[in-house]
Design brief:
The structure holds 2 protein chains of 2 kinds. Chain A is of the alpha+beta class. Chain A has 2 domains: about 40 residues, no CATH class; about 160 residues, no CATH class. Chain A is about 55% helix and about 15% strand. Chain A contains 7 helices and 7 strands. Chain B is α+β, with helices and mostly antiparallel strands. Helix content of chain B is about 55%, strand content about 10%. Chain B contains 8 helices and 6 strands, in the order αββαββααααββαα. In chain B, helix 2 runs antiparallel to helix 7 and helix 4 crosses helix 5. The chains are: A alpha+beta, B alpha+beta. The interface between A and B is large, with 68 and 73 residues.
Chain lengths: ~200, ~210
């Protein structure tokens, strides 16, 4: 059995079928014939474009966290909150588990994800591997499923509709920033971070 | 079904973390348990270790949390003259009646249908794979991907309660407080996510041709 280079092969992670890898043309997607999983996509976004997206997402993320999300009014009294206001409030209301979950999935994991992607892509522009490339790639793999900003946006929408029955509701800039962030996340969702393993060379690590 | 080779037959392992195709052979003098991916350094396994046991354990734990999550109220709305405790289901009903039926359907899907679907699908996958069933392998794999994809949307209700708690703070006039149900619900979501992560979908395909 000759395996010229391990990169010449591709294994479906869902059914273990082995394929010979071939270069994909623009817009092409390699799909497993056995279980129809997507094996690989042609990456339409260049490293620069991805870096631009990540930087945009970072700016929007800062705004989304600084600005209040919604304001409620009742008989001339007003009450508004930011993401951190919500996290702290849940902690004080004896729901520490929820508070920690929200802080992790809505703040820390997305933050770590954006910072590490930005770091890797910054060096990736010159085809280089950033310092700490391997541990960062492994970290990204593990925190991947644990970022939930898009769920939070839908949650905010539901909360607004529920509150509208009893209160005057004003949507604040934070919710718009979150909506934009969701859009950026959706664009990024089709990007397979694993391609960075191939895009960058190992030599000067 | 098809003559395509599988990694186990060729003595190959696809790294779980970085996807690199590796040889299923320990380096000189090392034991099988010490195999590591040459590219990312993660431990290499033909299948995720103790996949059945871990997935069962997490799934059962999730189910045990799911019962109080539905029975115990998740949120209290208090105003001057009344106190109202909401469970997940009464929250959906209230949204349907007073707010928006469309959103009620979304919340119902995220909080009730998705977790139930997860228990059913993961249970089915575990039982059928453990019996080495060759039934509908492709469809079962797709079901698994569906569960992976939609699982985390169940956090919806947890975020709704959190936001309302932070927003509705008008002293005596009107207040919202989280109740223990929301904690159980959050734990259910986390546990089911961990369960689907510890399940190895390649086990679905193992029964029929690789058992030696």
């Amino acid at each position: 059995m000759d395996l010229a280079s391990p990169q010449a092969l591709l294994i479906c992670e869902y059914c273990d079928t082995v394929y010979r890898r071939r270069t994909l043309a623009r817009g092409e997607v390699a799909q497993c014939t056995c279980c129809e999983a997507i094996l690989e996509r042609h990456h339409g976004l260049s490293v620069n474009a991805m870096l631009a997206l990540v930087l945009t997402a970072m700016i929007v993320f800062v705004l989304a966290n600084m600005w209040p999300i919604v304001t409620l009014g009742l008989n001339g009294q007003y009450s508004s909150t930011t993401l951190w206001g919500m996290i702290i409030q849940m902690w004080q209301q004896q729901a520490q588990v929820v508070s920690v979950l929200a802080a992790a999935t809505l703040f820390f994991f997305p933050l770590v994800k954006m910072l590490s992607l930005g770091w890797l892509l910054w060096f990736g522009r010159q085809g280089r591997r950033a310092p700490g490339f391997v541990p960062i790639m492994v970290t990204l793999h593990y925190i991947g499923p644990w970022t939930m900003s898009e769920v939070f946006v839908l949650g905010a929408l539901v909360a607004i509709v529920k509150a509208r029955v009893y209160f005057e509701v004003v949507a604040d800039p934070g919710i718009y920033a979150y909506a934009v962030l969701t859009l950026l996340i959706t664009i990024f969702a089709s990007v397979d971070v694993r391609q960075l393993w191939d895009l960058t060379t190992e030599a000067p690590a | 079904m098809s003559a395509l080779p599988r990694a186990t037959e060729l003595g190959l392992i696809g790294c779980q973390v970085c996807g690199l195709v590796c040889r299923d052979a320990p380096a000189d003098g090392a034991s099988r348990d010490e195999m590591a991916c040459p590219r990312c350094g993660s431990a290499l396994h033909r299948r995720k270790p103790a996949s059945y046991a871990r997935t069962w354990a997490l799934l059962i734990a999730a189910f045990l949390m799911y019962i109080p999550a539905n029975v115990v109220p998740i949120m209290r709305t208090a105003s001057l003259n009344d106190i109202d405790d909401n469970t997940i289901l009464t929250g959906v009903v209230e949204l349907w009646v007073k707010g928006s039926p469309y959103l009620a359907v979304i919340v119902f899907t995220a909080s009730i249908v998705v977790p139930m679907l997860k228990f059913l699908v993961m249970g089915t996958l575990l039982v059928s794979s453990q019996r080495g069933s060759g039934w509908a392998q492709s469809q079962r794999t797709k079901l698994f991907r569906l569960v992976e994809l939609i699982g985390y949307w169940s956090m919806l209700d947890v975020f709704v309660v959190s936001l309302l708690t932070a927003l509705v703070r008008f002293n005596l006039l009107s207040r919202v407080e989280p109740l223990p149900g929301v904690i159980f619900f959050g734990l259910t979501v986390v546990l089911t996510m961990l369960a689907s992560m510890s399940f190895d979908p390649r086990l679905i395909w193992d029964g029929w041709d690789t058992d030696d």
